[in-house]
Amino acid sequence: MIEFKGVSKTYSGSKEPVVKDLSFEIPDGDICVLVGPSGCGKTTSMRMVNRLIEPTNGEILIDGQKNTSMSGTQLRRKIGYAIQQTGLFPHRTIGENVGTVPGLLGWDKERTTKRVNDLLDMVGLAPDQYRDRYPAELSGGQQQRVGVARALAADPPIMLMDEPFGAVDPITRESLQQEFLRIQEDIKKTIVFVTHDIDEAIKMGDKIAILKEGGVLAQYDTPENILADPGSDFVSSFVGTDRVLKRLSLLQVRDMDLDPVNGNSDNLPQIDERLTLRDALSEIIGTGADKGLVVGGGNGSPQGTLSIEAIRALSNRETTDRETTGG
Amino acid sequence: MDSSEDPPTAILALFQSEFAPEQKGLIDWGWLSDHLTSDILPALWEHIILCAVSVGIAVVISVPLGILCARYRRLYPPVTAITGFFYTIPSFSMFTILLFVIGFSVGKTPAIIALVLYSLLVLIRNVVTGLDSVPPETKDAARGMGLTDRQILLRVELPLALPVIVAGMRIAIVTVIGIAVIGAYIGAGGLGELIFDGITRDFPTLYLTGAVLSTLLAVTIDLLLVRTERLLSPWARRARGAN
């Protein structure tokens, strides 16, 4: 667990803090996305975790221990670090790059080599083909994979990732995000993930910390809750006017209570139960129907029907709930 | 009236007979092969040592000084101003100052000092430029992974700056090979001695040998260092090849 306790940072020569009285907790195994407009202090906040930047006030605890309880370099060897421009060493091969931290920790050669091969496999780069190349011989997307593999090298429980998929085209980014989420299911790291892109935040985050200018925490919650209930005008405008649709994209059809199949369903559009509600809605509207036949269960058999009404009710119910609680 | 044209010729002839061996053609190959091991090669070797020692000392001074300048930026302008001033002093004037103002006695020491002073500007500048050329994100990633400042310098910054530093050494060495020729004037020895002797004795074999060898030396060293520069950055070469 990572705990921010009243953390502030004011750079010397500046009166205004870049991070102001930040307090929140990141549970083990969660991806916490720090998101906000530029100048909101999200990168500064992340860099205070491994003490690349020291806070002016407050403290950061890792598993209950102050992160100042050991030297900065010792701390950083225990925390994975991946950044947008990858920062791969251009004069070192891919294998040497990935083996950097194991080398610093004094692992023997055999163990490092095995780990490097495993990691390259994990990020989808055939070790025999890529291990001895130099970074400049790889595409941008491949370099970012190496960056992530290098951050994971010593199997640190915590990872800091600053727009790790930022420097590639949208399609590559999409697949890198998917792959990373798949990897995270296995490795369950506690991750501080910085991005300026709310869509990436919604997609990657178990929790999202939205920061606003001046480094103030505007809201800290799950993506679902932030989209259902933006706590302020700032958050509302930051998540965008399509927040209802964004929220639908977080839910899958199979999460819904379906209506039974009544009568003739031949002319209903078929909807895979693994689709997101957003895609299902698009599918139903696109065919001019008012409901769709949900298929799935491994063999593509009908599971029930999903109506536009049910999707709308979902959004409305949340709204009503909130108003009731609020009132 | 006949004799009015004679004296200069006569004097020249006298000089030639006194100082220079009988010469057939521009180069006296016989003399050259007789004196190859006794005079020519030792002069060449002396020249190489003189330049190597000078640039060696200059590198030992420039690398730490360049690292300091890259770290503490305020140092850089005064350091370039001072070394730039050394660089602009004409070589004859430099030798004169070292001998008659500072009071060194004739020999290798003032020559080496002069050659070191001439090398500093180029070397320090290239050390700083080389260190500056290291991408900031590479240094950031190195720090973020837990390398110490020393490890970052030795394992990341210097290896990446090395091709630029070697490029500076190339310029320094070629410059120094040329200036060292003039160093013979204050008794530094080397190929310049062949040239000065040859001129004094009006013996083309001698001064041409000195001139040709010093030129060849400069060109050879230059080419060698170009190769070294490339060998030191295989990553850049492979990347160019891949594209």
Question: What share of the residues of chain A does DSSP label as strand, in percent?
Answer: 15-25%
**Number of DSSP-assigned strands of chain B:** 0
Biggest sheet of chain A, in brief? 6 strands, mixed
Structural class of chain B: mainly alpha
Characterize the overall form of chain B.
elongated
Oligomer classification: heterodimer
Task: List the chains of the largest interface with their residue counts.
Answer: A-B, 30 and 24 residues
Q: Count of DSSP helices of chain B?
A: 10
Beta-strand portion of chain B reads under 5%
- Output mean pLDDT of chain A: 90
Extended strand count of chain A: 13
Mass-distribution shape of chain A = globular
Work out the helix count of chain A.
Answer: 14
Terminal residue distance of chain B: 80 Å
Supply the helix-strand structural class of chain A: alpha/beta
Rg of chain A (CA only): 23 Å
Topology at a glance:
The complex is a heterodimer of chains A (327) and B (243).
Chain A: E1 2-9, E2 19-26, E3 31-35, H1 42-49, E4 57-62, E5 65-66, H2 72-77, E6 79-83, H3 94-98, H4 100-104, H5 109-122, H6 127-130, H7 140-152, E7 158-162, H8 170-187, E8 190-195, H9 198-204, E9 207-212, E10 216-221, H10 223-228, H11 233-239, H12 243-248, E11 270-272, H13 277-286, E12 291-296, E13 301-307, H14 308-326
Parallel strand pairs in A: 3-8, 3-9, 6-7, 7-8, 11-12
Antiparallel strand pairs in A: 1-2, 1-4, 4-5, 9-10, 12-13
Helix pairs in contact in A: 5-7
Chain B: H1 6-19, H2 29-71, H3 76-88, H4 91-101, H5 108-132, H6 136-144, H7 149-183, H8 191-200, H9 204-231, H10 234-242
Helix pairs in contact in B: 2-5, 2-7, 2-8, 2-9, 3-5, 5-7, 6-7, 7-8, 7-9, 8-9
